[in-house]
Known about the structure:
Residues 46-140 form the Copper resistance protein D domain. By secondary structure, this protein is mostly helical. 79% of the residues lie in helices and 0% in strands. The chain has one domain (3-146). Protoporphyrin IX containing FE binds at residues 7, 10-11, 14, 17-18, 59-60, 63-64, 66-67, 70, 88, 91-92, 95, 134, 137-138, 141-142, 144-145.
Amino acid sequence: MDHHLLLIIHLLCAALWVGGHLLLVFAYLPQALKTKDQNIILNYEKKYEAIGMTALVLLVISGVLMAYKYNVSIEYWFHFDSPIEKVVSTKLLLLLLTVAFALSAQFRVLPKLKNDPNKLPEMTFHIVAVTLIGVLMLVFGTFIRFGGF
Ligand code: HEM
């Protein structure tokens, strides 16, 4: 697929992934914490989940395909040898961290949060962490057009 088209898909999905999480952090999370009402978060997650997961999957596919177009194929990943490969490998590590937080939220926190508002601080930590990681992935992505780091 054409690199330009992959980049457009990547940027649209970055907008959905990072934007969706920033909206949660700045609009819904403060309200949920103030009123101790976990349903505000649970209802948002229910609506956002399919959009967010689709965006993340497309980010990975388009990102990996663009990495290949920069000749950063799988055998070079995690060597931290060249500037563009360093960005790609860092983004892949952050992706693994995102998946770890998502699994922890899904299987450890969310089932308990349904009946227990005392789990809100733990959920807040997961949401803020995933949001900050998303912003970092966006910022690191912008380094590629300047030759990497
Ligand atoms: C939350 C996940 C991610 C976000 C928010 C994100 C965001 C971005 C952004 C904003 C850019 C800048 C594009 C530009 O300068 O015009 C970018 C570029 C890039 N990203 Fe990602 N990205 C994510 C995940 C990934 C993953 C998993 C990979 C795979 C290794 C990847 C590989 C790339 C590559 C190769 C570019 C350079 C595209 C180019 O300028 O030609 N990204 N990303």
